[in-house]
Specification:
210 residues, 7 helices, single chain, four-stranded mixed β-sheet
Length: 210
């Protein structure tokens, strides 16, 4: 059994080896002609709804730059930026960013999607707390958007009742259309899904939903 000193040494050794692997990975890319590397952190909705249209022209114009994208919650993104674990992050507007410099990026609205026969389909808008008595189709565990919703459910003294959890707004919406449950997704994703699915949207009245 290691002594306390040995356990402390082990923790630092793991940290050193992890940093070494990152350094080797970063430097090895230069051997293949890559001259720039951007570490970008953002949430689920940003990755799927906004980044493709932004990154495509940028990467085409800068062939020697690589971008490493990771999904995080806003508070985690701020912490990683402060600890120099990332170069840039996309966070919710109401996030406490301290003295970090910020710029407006995009406006995102979360909406409820339901099947036409669902009891909520006749509603034009409602508060998030009212949805918590219904079954949900959610994004996979670890998804930042789902973690965000779970935190707001906890503030309301309730929890989300998942029937099933999937990866991707399209897959989630497909099961919503089948009547499995309701879901909360970005309005842009809902519009895209409605091009090929029979769905209804209900606006969320909560300030944090925009």
């Amino acid at each position: 059994q290691p002594t306390e000193a040995g356990a402390a040494l082990l923790r630092h050794a793991h940290s050193i080896l992890l940093q070494w692997e990152r350094m080797v990975g970063d430097v090895s890319q230069y051997a293949h002609g890559l001259k720039g590397h951007v570490r970008l952190l953002c949430n689920t909705a940003t990755i799927t709804e906004f980044l493709p249209e932004v990154l495509s022209p940028y990467l085409t114009a800068h062939p020697n730059v690589g971008i490493d994208i990771h999904e995080r919650l806003s508070a985690e993104i701020v912490q990683d930026l402060l600890e120099d674990k990332a170069d840039v992050g996309v966070v919710a507007k109401n996030t406490d960013v301290g003295e970090l410099e910020t710029f407006p990026f995009r406006t995102l609205k979360l909406v409820i999607v339901v099947a036409p026969a669902h009891p909520l389909a006749t509603r034009a808008k409602m508060a998030f707390a009212e949805t918590l008595d219904h079954d949900f189709v959610g994004m996979a565990e670890g998804s930042s958007i789902q973690t965000y919703l779970e935190a707001h459910a906890a503030k309301a003294g309730k929890r989300l009742n998942y029937r099933v959890r999937l990866r991707g707004f399209m897959a989630v919406s497909r099961l919503v259309e089948s009547g499995v449950g309701i879901a909360i997704i970005p309005e842009t994703a809902a519009r895209r899904c409605m091009d090929s699915m029979d769905l209804r949207t209900v606006a969320l009245t909560d300030i944090w939903a925009t």
